[in-house]
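Re: Re: token formats

Sure, here are both.
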Amino acid sequence: MQSVRHSEDVHHQATLLQAWEQDYIQLHAGAFTGSLSTFRLGAARLFSERMNRSVLQTGALPAGRLAFGLPVRAGGRSCICGEEVGPNSLLVFSGRSGFEFLSPDIFEFLGIEIDVNGFADPVFEAMLHQLDTVLSSGRRSLPIAGARAAKLGRLLHGILHEEGLDLRLEELPAAATAFSRGLVGWILDMLQPAGTGEPGRSTIRHWDTINAIRELVADGQTCPVSVAELTVELGLSRRTLQNACQEVVGLSPVQFLRALRLSEARRMLQTDRPVTEAATQFGFWHLGYFSRDYRQMFGELPSVTRAAAAQTRRRLVSGR
């Protein structure tokens, strides 16, 4: 479900994130304006909070919730639980001790909240355990590479502002589970240090790994979109996956996954399935980015593929 709410009072702003027990204190003089945009699907809630004045925030989340996010605009210094927030930092708000956060003037924050309770999907449970371990490491400001931070910001912003996405996804089976798994997987991937892999394994021995990845994507029930999902599904290390993909197909695991997902989405479009269904079935949650990546890969828009396939079927039926 998508929603946007606005506020002209700092104390009212503090209540907009429901279930967060928090208090806001405005520090700099001037009329306050703020807003909160949210998107909820399955276990995940995404939100974008904007405020024009520096605020001291204190609070805590209910047990069983992971909450973290990325500042994408800041007009000055910020600090979380005594740690200076550097550029390209993932900020952790969940934890038993609660949080204290100083946000600057002209501030925008893209946040993620995940309910970790009650899942029957063992792969997702394992991924949540990995994420909880990383987020509970003790640090509240986790540095990530600039390119990864920019990618995460574009992804979250795109989902939050994709008009009508929640209504389209409600019509698709298993969308909530797939979305939550994909989101957690992306975060785990971005928090991993870049590695060079281990040398020495033969290309032939990697074919089984490549085929296993291909079969997971082709199955389409819960399509993996991240290396984190693959490590759990296949029981392999990131290093092994990196070596297999690089040595066999000359791509990183992320690039190989994207190529497979685009290929399966194209196959689905050629059976006259809607573009939204084909995209989200294979983990492309922002339709604008899907169209861009699809055109880069195949030289045409998804709608063109679907229309051409429909025209071919009509010719076959008419015998022309």
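Second one below.
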Amino acid sequence: MVAGALLYNNLTRRRWPHRDRAPSAEARLQQSDLDTALARYNQVLDISRDDLQALLEQAESAAYQRTMGVIRCADVMTPDPVVARADMPLQAAWALMRKHRVKALPVIDSQLHLVGIVTVADFMRQVDMDVHEGMAWRLRSLLRPKAPSGDSQVGQIMTRNVRVSSGDRLLIDLVPVFSVAGHRHIPIIDQDRRLAGIITQSDLIKALYKAVHG
């Protein structure tokens, strides 16, 4: 898993461990390493340190493309994920997430079309996280069953503008979606926008690890 995480960071151009300053070449190779290689082959190679570094980076990128370029979203997605409906009580949705140990539920309509997603973050946004005292009580209050006309339904807190992908899309295309855009769950839909599966950030890292060590 560590190797998969490292590969994930390299693909996103975010070296690990993360630093506040801009990434540097020494994250993987130090200049002294390049100098050592050049000194060893200085009789047969006429190449500068910068050119050698660029060559190595291009080779590394090609290796990533070769190992990841054939894996598609359908290959690693979780099919038939646990789902919610917009009219599902929040208490029931929260219970589903705890039972199945997931942090997000795609929300579908009666035709299995994706209409949104509800995550742990959506629940937490309903609670004032800046005030720690009584936070558990406020969460319990949010999940407490209310009258049918109340606002304690998934549709009231779910995210409607959902980033999605198709099953035939290359998995490597989702790397910037997870790393730069900050998404943690990407629902996979078919051509009719019906839910087909879901990919999490953990699924992506596992796939990277398997591609390297499989």
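The beta strands are 78-79, 84-85, 104-108, 114-119, 165-166, 185-189, 195-200. Residues 25 and 57 are 10 Å apart (CA to CA).
- S.
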